[in-house]
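Run log, item B.
One chain of 332 residues. Sequence copied directly from the ordering sheet:
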Amino acid sequence: MDVVDSKVYPWQEHSWETLTGRFPQLSHGLLFYGKKGCGKHAFARHFVAWVLCLNKQANGACGECSSCQWLKSDTHPNYVHISTDEDNKKQNARIKIEKIRDLLPFVQQTVDGWRVIVIEPAEALNIASANALLKTLEEPGERVVIILLADHYLKLPATVRSRLQHVALDRISAEQSQAYLQQHLPESAASQLSLLMNLSGHMPLQAVQLAHSDWLQRRHEFVQDWEKLVLQKNMPLHYATRWNKELSFIDFMQMLDYLLSDLACIKLNQQIKNNDMQPGLERLSAQYQLEQLFTLYEDLQRFRQLADQNVQSNLIMDQLFIKLMNCGPFLE
């Protein structure tokens, strides 16, 4: 466990006080959830260290006892972390049932102190592994805490959700977000606060990460190229090659994801996230039918899956730019 990134953010203080104040009269199954960028992983690490600590402090683990030292060296005998396989971090990777079954000896053994299990991302549980987890949740043994981390808790089976105490970690006021960003944004990004909050789903940590991303500064250039591509119906491979060099594949796909969503929002008379690009996006949106934008968005997700299957990114980009060109006006 990486205990370096372990903290309670200002918007999580109430959750921290509630959990630690009621401990050990908590549910043995906890669901920590919140949108990406809310700091739930740092909170979970802080709470895990506190539960296992032999000399608990009000604001966290002592950091000095044998339990804290074991945790820092990732050798704690009473802590188990379950995720997808290290060699299979693809978007559709699942947590295998064998990993859940292997928990039984751990939760049934008799040991000194508390035992903690962290499962993340909880959405990666498949039907079989979720059903196996139910047995552990129903008969966890004494002094066992099972923590599930999720971005979207409704993706978990209702049978699992109903056996967990839910802790929302993304309840952030506008004042809390603004205060955090004013302290952590680079000066060059201060004027983009509204834009960053839009693109990050109003999650401050994600906003700070976006402020340092390459693609944020390249959007206007890309939209100009995109508009030329659609209007001129020419050189899709030229543009594909350029942007395959300009941005990493992941950054490019994230940028295009946001932009495609905004083109659809314009068609539907909804507010867009890239609010500094309204005129250019309106011109581009006029070149597509709404159904074509939905088709492109589906293609985008399919291309991401192909990348997960190790298809070369340059081949994917070629096909993607051909589709962006051919979905323009007067083409079915």
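Observations after the first pass:
- The radius of gyration is 23 Å.
- The chain is about 50% helix and 10% strand.
Flagged for discussion on Thursday.
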